[in-house]
């Protein structure tokens, strides 16, 4: 398997370029997978050895699953700011990783970061991060992205990777260290039997707000002091040529990620994921041994679903890799909204979920609060 890792400061376009590479490989008929490391390390408090070791363990668990499913490429996007950050990944990945640092001028980086429309108060921290990266010793190839479109950046990186250019002057990409994989998390389980974990699963029709409410629920669980993890299933199962998630690989990645988070001491997992029917939920639940699963279905009326999908098409909210709503025409949105309304009716008619929450007129934090109250009552 050929692994291409895109790194660089926040806002430089790692995720956008990485997903475009994945999509382009798929259009060319190549079997490829994509991972954003932010999506596989959402556990807090982090394990004692830190976030990068947690990500390395997750990558070590996931890439063999993609390889076994026939993937010949794995595109990874995620930050590494120092040479020490890079070190844990050596034994976690196959040899010959092509690491590419994306660079942008300070004014261009500010423009891109502010253009995302969220966390704008961190823009100067991002510029400072970019300056540090220039002398960080991270290594790898460097691609200047000023004046380039996402498609152009992706095409340039793919050409470098296809040529097998894993090094440049003073930019050696280290191969794996002499080990079979990263050490497991330590100091988290106490050596005795683990307490039964709680899993809160949010599902619903497209536009019901599953991902946004799920992440808010995760944040509220963290505020109680519980070591918890979060997974958005739409972000961990990218396996092409088809651009959408592969259901079979999603179940396997869920099982692998839960094993990693459980070993790191997580006693709660919040999942945002699809659940078309009870049989689908049962397959996913089978990937979560030693856990009590509570499923909460989010409901919304047709007008609410249509309004949310329309805002997504206009680019409002955080950018999501693989979001096929971005840039859709009003006619497209109307068709998708009609499908979402039908899906909501079908889920309601099938009685999917242990509890449900109506989200009309509510913000994601308000939805999260009601979800947690409903889940607590169901499990009481």
Could you characterize what this model shows?
There is one protein chain. It contains 12 helices and 12 strands. With 380 residues, it is of the alpha/beta class. It folds into 2 domains: 2-162, Rossmann fold (3-Layer(aba) Sandwich), CATH 3.40.50.300; 197-226 and 267-379, 3-Layer(aba) Sandwich (Rossmann fold). Strands 6-5-1-4-2-9 form a 6-stranded mixed β-sheet, with helices on both faces. α1 (14-27) packs across α6 (150-162) and α2 packs antiparallel against α8. It is globular, with a radius of gyration of 21 Å. The termini are far apart. Residues 166-181 and 186-192 have low confidence and may be disordered.
Structural class: alpha/beta
| Total count of helical runs of at least 4 residues | 12
The rough form would be described as globular
Classified by CATH, the class of the largest domain is Alpha Beta
Q: Tell me the quaternary state.
A: single chain
Count of folded domains:
2
Tell me what portion of residues adopts beta-strand conformation.
15-25%
**Segments where pLDDT lies below 50 for 5+ residues?**
166-181, 186-192
User: What's the alpha carbon Rg, rounded to whole Å?
Assistant: 21 Å
**Share of helix, binned:** 40-55%
What CATH calls the topology of the largest domain is Rossmann fold
Kindly state the number of beta strands.
12
Cα-to-Cα separation, first versus last residue = 47 Å
CATH architecture of the largest domain: 3-Layer(aba) Sandwich
Q: Say which CATH homologous superfamily of the largest domain is assigned.
A: P-loop containing nucleotide triphosphate hydrolases
- Sheet with most strands: strand arrangement: 6-5-1-4-2-9
* Elements, N to C (H/E): EHEEHEHEHHEHEHEEHEHEHHEH
Q: Biggest sheet, in brief? A: 6 strands, mixed
The overall pLDDT, averaged over residues, is 86
